[in-house]
Amino acid sequence: MEREPNYITPAGYAALRTRYDTLFGQERPKLVEVISWAAGNGDRSENGDYIYGRKRLREIDRELGHLSRRMKAAKVIDPARTEDRARVRFGATVTIVDEEDAERVVTLVGVDEADATAGRISWHAPMARALKGAAVGDVRRVHLPGGDKEWEVLAIAYPEA
């Protein structure tokens, strides 16, 4: 079974890279220094700085591994280079309206950069799957946990190059 690439925008990849660099270049070295200092203070079994530091170091190393795997699998797609701007594709910002005339603006982004509160939904989310390939004026039915809902595409925008 071949896994689908980790599609991501350039901004999303930059955010992953920044987080990795911050953890690896700043937080981890400071923490190693604190752990070394705490280890030199003697009894480690009741040394809070040492115990907490080792626990936090494991968390950082786990996150570094995760970020490394996500960046390695990443396929950066620049939505500004999308040729067919009349249809919803990865990176599109879409204005939609439901049956109650409630407007919503969503941007289809990679899994690692999704933030529903900011209007950035994962490329794999039910709404994004329903909107893929839609043009202005198309009505799409979205299968949600609360039941089906229909949305009409009002506008499609892509970032400028």
From TrEMBL:
Protein name: Transcription elongation factor GreB
Function text: Necessary for efficient RNA polymerase transcription elongation past template-encoded arresting sites. The arresting sites in DNA have the property of trapping a certain fraction of elongating RNA polymerases that pass through, resulting in locked ternary complexes. Cleavage of the nascent transcript by cleavage factors such as GreA or GreB allows the resumption of elongation from the new 3'terminus. GreB releases sequences of up to 9 nucleotides in length.
Similarity field: Belongs to the GreA/GreB family. GreB subfamily.
Gene: greB
Any one GO biological process: DNA-templated transcription elongation
Molecular function via GO: DNA binding; RNA polymerase binding; translation elongation factor activity
Residue intervals of the Transcription elongation factor GreA/GreB C-terminal domain: 86-158
Domain of life of the source: Bacteria
Matching Pfam families: GreA_GreB (PF01272), GreA_GreB_N (PF03449)
Entry-linked NCBIfam families: PRK01885.1 (NF002506)
Keywords: DNA-binding, Elongation factor, Protein biosynthesis, Transcription, Transcription regulation
Domain Transcription elongation factor GreA/GreB N-terminal: 6-76
Entry keyword Transmembrane: no
Coiled-coil ranges per UniProt: none
Entries under InterPro entries matching the protein: GreA/GreB_C_sf, Tscrpt_elong_fac_GreA/B, Tscrpt_elong_fac_GreA/B_C, Tscrpt_elong_fac_GreA/B_fam, Tscrpt_elong_fac_GreA/B_N, Tscrpt_elong_fac_GreA/B_N_sf, Tscrpt_elong_fac_GreB
